[in-house]
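Design review, sub-item: ligand-bound model
Attendees: FS, YL, KQ
YL presented the inputs for the S-adenosyl-L-homocysteine complex:
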Amino acid sequence: MPVFFITADQIHANAVTITGPLLDHLRASLRVKPGERIWVGDERRRRCHIEITHIDRRALRGTVLDQRTGPALTTPRLLVGQAILKGERMDWAIQKATELGVAALIPLVSEQTVVRPKQGRAGAQQERWQRIALEAAQQSERWDVPTVAAPSSAMAFFAAPDQTALKLILSERETGQSLGSVSFPSSPADTITLAVGPEGGWRDEELAEARARGFLPVTLGTRILRAETATIAAVSIVQSRLGELG
Ligand code: SAH
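KQ shared the predicted structure:
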């Protein structure tokens, strides 16, 4: 059952209006017709089964037949600060992290990041990443779409004041604690932040700054993983330990 993401403001009482890229997708690719029924979901973890009453180039209109709300969250939210990776690897990291249930991704520009957001293109790139997260969330039947934030410098990300219960930085060269043995918070009101370095690894100053700001360096073992592999492995370990995977 595909669930198409819309925003809560597209639902008024019993009527749903869909415009923009989703309308194009439903019309041009899926060729939906009046009388057909589809599921839509919004950022409040609400899903509506709608019957399409009208569709043209400008808008799709539907009537809500049934509504459900996602199960309450029971585990901490996982935020991933991901150093920007080259091309497809970043797309891949965002897609897989979404499938595995992260709540938000923050693209980071670090000292050894090979690709930097191009001047004037940062907005378009963020939108593309957000779209990848949305499609992955849709495909994996999540109740919500993780947010992909605007890129931030790694140093600013480490220094940002926050309420995170546990902050971790994946570090391949330090004798950090093993991620599998860190003790995790358990309340859904808590947040766990995980920072993953770029292809070239973190600079010493970055690791020092992160540590000074309360990040705990953690290791995934003696093998050096590619950054995107490290992201998937680390998110899988955290989610498994939280009971969200496996
Ligand atoms: N080129 C670097 C390796 C970078 S790996 C070097 O040779 O030093 C890219 C990122 O993945 C790292 O910054 C780290 O965040 C993560 N990573 C890779 N392997 C890891 C491991 N075994 N333990 C913890 N983090 C790891």
